[in-house]
Design a protein that fits this description.
With 536 residues, the chain is of the alpha/beta class. Among the domains are: 191 residues, Rossmann fold (3-Layer(aba) Sandwich); 147 residues, no CATH class. The protein has 15 helices and 17 strands. The strands form 5 sheets. The protein has a 6-stranded antiparallel sheet with strand order 2-1-4-5-6-7, sandwiched between helices. Strands 10-15-16-3-17 form a 5-stranded parallel sheet, sandwiched between helices. A two-stranded antiparallel sheet has the order 8-9. Helix 6 packs across helix 9. The protein is globular. About 8% of the residues have low confidence.
């Protein structure tokens, strides 16, 4: 994968970076606030990463664009908020969420790993996947992944093993039959427990005990915590409903476009107000002209693909809803959003909680059994040993690169993440991230560019930096780095153009003003080639 062009902006201001090459690209300046980090963040955001822009940057006002190649295929992606348009040699694809984008990425660009998460197999999200090759400037904490929340450290490691395609042992037909019987028994038990739970009556004494707890000093904190859980749950439930409604609307849209096609064949469709023959299709934050037959055909194909993806997306959302509901069950004996809800949720908690916990456990077991049936495989003891060996090999490569950079270094690596009380800082942290990125590249042999924002973070010495650049020059992957130079370094042209290094100077940019009107015309042209109309 080679990044060719990065751009972002709107009709009045924009920026385009088209100087990237296949070797080591160093975007540098003599001062901060020249736009280096915004370009990197814009690149990753356009590819599907979570927004990590600074608070003062109103990213929702802009379109983001990236052009890249994978082998002999060229892709162009435009993103605005949660909407994407992807242009390929075969046409265009519209994605209305990151979930849709990841399925398109998996099918058309590069296979994404599938991993077990909470007993269910799911296609990994870009925010976690990108951590194998992207090191951002913010949220650096060597004891955890960058995008904490739904995913944990163990999920990152599971993803690595999934990418490594672990060997698996087939299950026997008799064992598969036993699994089916277990699923049947557990489902019957769940039905019985749900009926019992529904019959539980309000017990005023239990409610009084629960309410008494609200007088403690920690009540407000626990109340806020539960409100946050409710908010997350409600958000996911609404998103799942939107996806279901969207699938139905897409079916209707295909019928409308087919009808439009018949009208165009029999005559012209024109605007009653101005007489224009241009017909616009609007998809959330993006607009396309569909009076052009080739564009319309591409959009029709895109819509049909979107419908096919909806089932998997809705399933993934369902898994997340179930996960948060289980978390809510565990927290339900604390403090709900209000005193009234606190009483309602706490009444009969003793017996109901036992039922809920058993139901949650049974559902998790059923989910795990269903995964075994679908995959027909299980990880053997031998495979677990292989995974430990693979992890050992990765850590060995981390250690190798570390001692290449620092011959006298005393750090020892027993995990891909440090303990919370052993977080590296300064140059040690930067060296750790760098070595891990190269070690993962060696283990996975992945084709993605190594992207490191604030490459010299932590005051990396000149001698160490030279070794790091030498190590990067020895790999086949494209490399994109950003760096802020000291005045004397900039004056003596620290990054000179060589066979391995492509220096890109951002010093001439105005402070905190990388977006300029002079790029607007070219940016509009980029978007028009994808039949996208920019903002006014």
């Amino acid at each position: 994968m080679r990044i060719k062009k990065i751009a972002f902006g709107n009709a009045s201001e924009a920026f385009i970076e088209s100087r990237l090459e296949e070797r080591i690209n160093i975007i540098y300046s003599d001062e901060n606030n020249k736009g280096k980090t915004l370009v990197i963040q814009g690149l990753m955001y356009c590819l599907g990463n979570e927004p990590i822009f600074p608070a003062g940057f109103e990213y929702k006002k802009y379109h983001f664009y990236v052009q890249f190649t994978v082998e002999d295929n060229t892709f162009e992606i435009v993103r605005r908020n949660s909407s994407f348009i992807i242009k390929t040699s075969g046409g265009m694809q519209i994605c209305n969420s990151v979930s849709e984008l990841k399925y398109f990425f998996d099918e058309n660009i590069c296979r994404l790993p599938r991993m077990l998460k909470d007993g269910h197999e799911r296609l990994v999200d870009p925010a976690l996947f990108f951590e194998i090759f992207f090191i951002g400037q913010d949220k650096r904490d060597t004891s955890s992944i960058f995008n904490k929340g739904f995913y944990k450290n163990d999920d990152f490691i599971s993803m690595l093993f999934a990418m490594g395609e672990p060997a698996q042992q087939s299950l026997s037909a008799s064992y598969l039959e036993q699994i089916k019987n277990q699923i049947k028994i557990k489902r019957q038990r769940v039905v019985m427990l749900k009926r019992s739970s529904a019959r539980i009556k309000v017990d005023p004494e239990i409610a009084a005990i629960a309410l008494a707890d609200s007088g403690s000093n920690s009540f407000e904190e626990r109340k806020k915590h539960l409100v946050d859980i409710y908010a997350d749950l409600t958000k996911l439930q609404k998103q799942r409903t939107r996806e279901l409604n969207r699938a139905q609307k897409l079916e209707s849209l295909i019928a409308e476009l087919n009808s439009l096609n018949r009208n165009l064949e029999e005559g012209l469709v024109v605007c009653a107000d101005c007489g224009s023959e241009r017909v616009i299709y609007k998809s959330k934050d993006l607009e396309f002209e569909v009076s052009n037959k080739s564009v319309k055909d591409s959009i029709m194909g895109s819509i049909k693909n979107s419908i096919a993806l909806k089932k998997e997306i809705i399933y993934d959302l369902g898994m997340q809803v179930e996960s948060i509901q289980n978390q809510l069950t565990q927290e339900i004996n604390k403090s709900p959003p209000s005193f009234r809800e606190f009483i309602l949720f706490s009444e009969g908690l003793g017996e109901a909680k036992k039922f809920d916990e058993e139901i949650a456990k049974l559902l998790a077991e059923i989910g795990a059994f269903m995964q075994l049936l679908e995959r027909g495989t299980t990880v053997s003891e031998k495979e677990r040993e292989r995974q430990l060996q693979a992890l050992s090999e990765i850590l060995s490569r981390v250690s190798y690169y570390y001692h290449e950079i620092d011959k006298n270094g005393r750090l020892e690596f027993s995990s891909l993440f440090t303990k919370k009380d052993e977080t590296y800082s300064g140059s040690e942290g930067q060296e750790f991230y760098f070595c891990k990125a190269l070690a993962l590249r060696d283990y996975l042999n992945h084709p993605f560019p190594i992207v490191i924002d604030s490459f010299r973070d932590g005051e990396i010495s000149t001698a160490k930096e030279e070794v790091m650049l030498k190590l990067l020059s020895e790999i086949e992957n494209q490399v994109i780095l950003t760096s802020t130079l000291k005045s004397e370094e900039y004056i003596r042209e620290k990054y000179k153009r060589t066979d391995n290094i492509n220096p890109i100077d951002y010093s001439p940019h105005r402070d905190s003003a990388i977006l300029e009107p002079k790029y607007s015309a070219a940016f509009k042209q980029l978007l028009s080639e994808l039949n996208i109309r920019t903002l006014p």
